[in-house]
Amino acid sequence: MYQITEEQRMLRKKLREFVDREVLPMAQSYEQSRAFPRALFSQLGDLGYLDMNYFNRRPDARYEGIDSAIILEELARGLPSMALSMSPHVQCMNLIALEGTESLRSRVVPAALRGEHVLAFAITEASGGSDALGIDTTAAFDGDGWILNGEKCWITSAGSADGYVVSAKSATSGRYRDVSLFYVDANTPGLDASFRAELIGMRNSPTGSVRMRNCKVPIDCLIGHENSAYGQMKVLLNEGRFDMAALAVGIAQGALENTVRHTSRSGHFGRTLATYQGVSFQVARMYEKIFVARNSLYTVAEMFRDQQRATMEVAALKLFASEMCVEVCRTAVQLHGAKGLSQYTDADRYFRDAQMLTIGEGSSEVCQIVISGKLYHTDLENY
Ligand SMILES: Cc1cc2nc3c(=O)[nH]c(=O)nc-3n(C[C@H](O)[C@H](O)[C@H](O)COP(=O)(O)OP(=O)(O)OC[C@H]3O[C@@H](n4cnc5c(N)ncnc54)[C@H](O)[C@@H]3O)c2cc1C
Q1: What is the dihedral of CA 50, 51, 57, 58, to 10 degrees?
Q2: Which atom of ligand 1 is nearest to the CA of 128?
Q3: How many domains does the chain have?
Q4: Domain presence at residue 380
Q5: Is position 336 within any domain?
Q6: Torsions phi, psi of 114, nearest 5?
Q7: Is the residue at 308 inside a domain?
Q8: Does 203 share its domain with 252?
């Protein structure tokens, strides 16, 4: 096991107690409500768990590297969709803290840290999310602000967020890489985030569209320089892939614990299921996979903390961890028998939530494109 520090062990213990007490007993009713758990989100802000950081982008942050991985893992063990909404929130907050204008920073960052102001990251468009720079949304400068037009799809926290970081092509440039990032307040006239997709999982993290029709944002809402989003998005995508791997480890851990409990209690002919090696060996393989994924997660977390380039490593981590999670959750359902197929059991919930991880933030295929592209020295960076 990767040697975590005593402080990190304590952080995990505190989070586990919090999740066992405040989240897991409510997980079923949260899921049935399909609502974004806003009160829980601000509670996480009050407890300081949103104060995460990677690549030393916000040097005064409380949690960095492995600490951040532990927070996401443990929250995903409780309510994966809550941890999913945290990922773009923290990424956008750190981006604005680092590259936003002074006025935007002071408007958004303190409230986001407290969990009072929820942030979402809107890149994907109807033409397909795998090409993150294939953007039709436009931004035109009109003298005292930017006018945004376009539609983003499959956006985490759409409709619940208070502000969106949106990628758009500068209307005056035809170059593929000339993309900029803007902060768009949810109340901006012309913004409509009312469409919500009904997904099979992650039901407490609303996923929907953000339509912008002549949405005018002030000058100070440009994040960084005009046409600088290519570099910003490469960092953000790496962070997002890392977060999905942390979620994968946490969900798989939840599914494992659940399966150990179930197979220790249920059985036939006076024996528990766990006493059959055909069952206990499958549980052992679940642990083995989680162990390997968690170690890789912490290795990449250390690379992030040391500000090393880790594009290929994070793609490999995300690919392995997300596929591992789907497999572990499938085994968990199998070992629960018909109970595992029943709606609103933990086994069923983890299984459905896990499916998102092989698609969002660079699908398994895109991760393989990144890795093979690096291996063969070709420039496929725009994935
Ligand atoms: C729950 C959820 C939350 C999300 N949250 C956000 C968010 O907050 N912000 C945001 O901007 N987006 C978000 N997304 C969108 C997500 O990033 C995209 O779904 C993802 O990038 C894949 O894009 P796509 O769904 O359009 O699939 P497509 O790009 O259309 O791909 C379809 C399939 O083709 C494969 N494929 C595509 N290109 C290639 C290729 N060159 N070679 C081989 N295979 C290929 C893909 O791997 C995939 O299997 C979210 C998605 C989900 C499901």
Answers
A1: 140
A2: 26
A3: 3
A4: no
A5: yes
A6: -80, -10
A7: yes
A8: no
Do 109 and 123 belong to one domain?
no
301 C-alpha to center of ligand 1: Å? 24
352 plus 280 within the same structural domain: yes
Query: Which one of 85, 113, 141 terminates a domain?
Result: 113
Domain identity same for 241 and 355: yes
Looking at every residue in the chain, the average pLDDT score rounds to 94
Shared-domain flag, residues 35 and 107: yes
- Can you state the percent helix, strand and coil of the chain, rounding each to 5? 55, 15, 30
Same domain, 219 and 132: yes
Using a 6 Å cutoff on CB, does residue 30 contact ligand 1? no
Residue 382 binned pLDDT confidence (cut-offs 50, 70, 90): very low
Residue to mutate, 81, 154, 212, 368, ligand 1, most ligand atoms under 8 Å from C-beta: 154
**Cα(298) to centroid of ligand 1, in Å?**
25
Output the pTM of the full model: 0.96
Output phi, psi for 309, to 5 deg: -70, 135
* Domain identity same for 209 and 245: no
pLDDT tens-digit map of 310-321:
999 999 999 999
Using the atom order of ligand 1, give the atom closest to the CA of residue 199. 1
pLDDT digits (tens, 9 = 90+) for 104-137: 999 999 999 999 999 999 999 988 889 888 899 9
The residue range of the domain holding 237 is 230-375
Return the SS3 of 89. Answer: helix
Using DSSP, state whether 211 is helix, strand or coil: strand
Rg value, the chain, Cα: 21
Atom 38 (ligand 1) nearest CA: 130
Q: Is the CB of 44 under 6 A from ligand 1?
A: no
363 ligand 1 Cβ < 6 A: yes
The verdict on 131 and 146 lying in the same domain is yes
Pairing between β-strand 207-218 and β-strand 271-272 as defined by DSSP bridges:
unpaired
Indicate whether residue 359 lines ligand 1 (CB < 6 A).
yes
